[in-house]
Backbone:
Protein backbone atom coordinates (compact mmCIF):
# COMPACT_ATOMS: atom_id res chain seq x y z
CA UNK A 1 0.00 0.00 0.00
CA UNK A 2 1.51 3.34 -0.97
CA UNK A 3 2.32 5.79 1.75
CA UNK A 4 0.00 8.82 2.02
CA UNK A 5 0.89 12.04 0.22
CA UNK A 6 1.59 13.88 3.49
CA UNK A 7 4.36 11.37 4.30
CA UNK A 8 5.98 12.00 0.90
CA UNK A 9 5.68 15.75 1.46
CA UNK A 10 7.29 15.54 4.92
CA UNK A 11 10.27 13.74 3.35
CA UNK A 12 10.81 16.38 0.65
CA UNK A 13 12.69 18.66 3.06
CA UNK A 14 15.49 16.04 3.12
CA UNK A 15 15.77 15.96 -0.69
CA UNK A 16 18.39 18.01 -2.47
CA UNK A 17 17.13 20.52 -5.06
CA UNK A 18 18.30 18.46 -8.05
CA UNK A 19 16.59 15.24 -6.85
CA UNK A 20 13.14 13.75 -6.89
CA UNK A 21 11.80 10.93 -4.74
CA UNK A 22 11.37 7.74 -6.74
CA UNK A 23 10.58 5.22 -3.97
CA UNK A 24 9.68 5.51 -0.31
CA UNK A 25 8.90 2.79 2.21
CA UNK A 26 8.75 2.43 6.01
CA UNK A 27 10.66 0.05 8.20
CA UNK A 28 11.84 -0.76 11.66
CA UNK A 29 15.60 -0.56 12.07
CA UNK A 30 17.80 -2.29 14.58
CA UNK A 31 21.41 -1.74 15.47
CA UNK A 32 23.95 -3.61 17.54
CA UNK A 33 23.28 -3.08 21.22
CA UNK A 34 19.53 -3.46 20.92
CA UNK A 35 18.43 -0.08 19.59
CA UNK A 36 15.18 -0.24 17.60
CA UNK A 37 13.55 2.73 15.86
CA UNK A 38 11.24 3.59 12.96
CA UNK A 39 12.72 4.70 9.66
CA UNK A 40 11.67 5.71 6.18
CA UNK A 41 13.90 4.58 3.31
CA UNK A 42 13.86 7.15 0.53
CA UNK A 43 15.27 6.38 -2.90
CA UNK A 44 15.91 9.43 -5.08
CA UNK A 45 17.58 9.93 -8.44
CA UNK A 46 21.02 10.21 -6.82
CA UNK A 47 20.91 8.60 -3.37
CA UNK A 48 19.35 6.17 -0.92
CA UNK A 49 18.58 8.02 2.30
CA UNK A 50 17.53 6.47 5.60
CA UNK A 51 15.41 8.89 7.63
CA UNK A 52 14.73 8.35 11.32
CA UNK A 53 11.22 9.09 12.57
CA UNK A 54 9.94 10.75 15.71
CA UNK A 55 9.13 8.57 18.69
CA UNK A 56 5.42 9.34 18.44
CA UNK A 57 4.96 8.70 14.72
CA UNK A 58 6.46 6.11 12.45
CA UNK A 59 5.73 8.28 9.40
CA UNK A 60 7.16 11.64 10.53
CA UNK A 61 10.85 11.95 9.61
CA UNK A 62 13.03 14.09 11.85
CA UNK A 63 16.65 13.37 10.87
CA UNK A 64 18.91 11.70 8.33
CA UNK A 65 20.49 8.49 9.62
CA UNK A 66 22.57 7.89 6.51
CA UNK A 67 22.85 8.84 2.86
CA UNK A 68 24.28 6.34 0.39
CA UNK A 69 25.02 6.44 -3.37
CA UNK A 70 22.13 5.42 -5.60
CA UNK A 71 24.32 2.64 -6.99
CA UNK A 72 23.85 0.50 -3.84
CA UNK A 73 21.38 -2.32 -4.03
CA UNK A 74 18.75 -2.61 -1.31
CA UNK A 75 18.31 -6.36 -1.75
CA UNK A 76 18.47 -9.20 -1.53
CA UNK A 77 15.55 -9.35 0.86
CA UNK A 78 16.06 -11.81 3.72
CA UNK A 79 12.79 -13.54 4.61
CA UNK A 80 14.09 -15.67 7.49
CA UNK A 81 12.48 -13.52 10.21
CA UNK A 82 10.34 -11.32 8.00
CA UNK A 83 11.32 -9.14 5.06
CA UNK A 84 14.62 -7.53 6.01
CA UNK A 85 17.34 -5.63 4.15
CA UNK A 86 20.68 -4.22 5.25
CA UNK A 87 21.71 -0.67 4.36
CA UNK A 88 25.11 0.49 5.53
CA UNK A 89 25.14 -1.94 8.46
CA UNK A 90 21.61 -0.99 9.52
CA UNK A 91 19.11 -3.87 9.49
CA UNK A 92 15.70 -2.68 8.30
CA UNK A 93 12.62 -4.85 8.61
CA UNK A 94 9.65 -3.89 6.47
CA UNK A 95 6.26 -5.26 5.53
CA UNK A 96 5.87 -7.79 2.72
CA UNK A 97 3.88 -5.26 0.73
CA UNK A 98 7.03 -3.15 0.25
CA UNK A 99 9.21 -5.98 -1.11
CA UNK A 100 8.04 -5.08 -4.62
CA UNK A 101 9.22 -1.49 -4.04
CA UNK A 102 12.66 -2.74 -2.98
CA UNK A 103 12.91 -4.97 -6.03
CA UNK A 104 11.75 -2.19 -8.37
CA UNK A 105 14.42 0.14 -6.98
CA UNK A 106 17.07 -2.53 -7.49
CA UNK A 107 15.81 -3.29 -11.01
CA UNK A 108 16.65 0.26 -12.03
CA UNK A 109 20.30 -0.37 -11.14
CA UNK A 110 20.76 -3.87 -12.58
CA UNK A 111 17.80 -4.84 -14.73
CA UNK A 112 19.72 -7.72 -16.33
CA UNK A 113 20.08 -9.47 -12.94
CA UNK A 114 16.44 -9.23 -11.92
CA UNK A 115 14.63 -10.05 -15.14
CA UNK A 116 14.08 -13.65 -16.23
CA UNK A 117 16.08 -14.84 -19.24
CA UNK A 118 14.53 -14.27 -22.64
CA UNK A 119 12.66 -17.48 -23.53
CA UNK A 120 13.00 -16.76 -27.26
CA UNK A 121 16.43 -15.21 -27.79
CA UNK A 122 17.36 -14.04 -31.26
CA UNK A 123 19.21 -16.81 -33.01
Residues:
Amino acid sequence: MPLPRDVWESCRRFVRPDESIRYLFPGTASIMGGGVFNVLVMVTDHAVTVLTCTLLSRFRPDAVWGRYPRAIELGPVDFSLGPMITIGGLHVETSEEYVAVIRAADAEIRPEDLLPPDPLPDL
Notes: The chain has a mean pLDDT of 90. DSSP finds three helices and six strands in the chain.
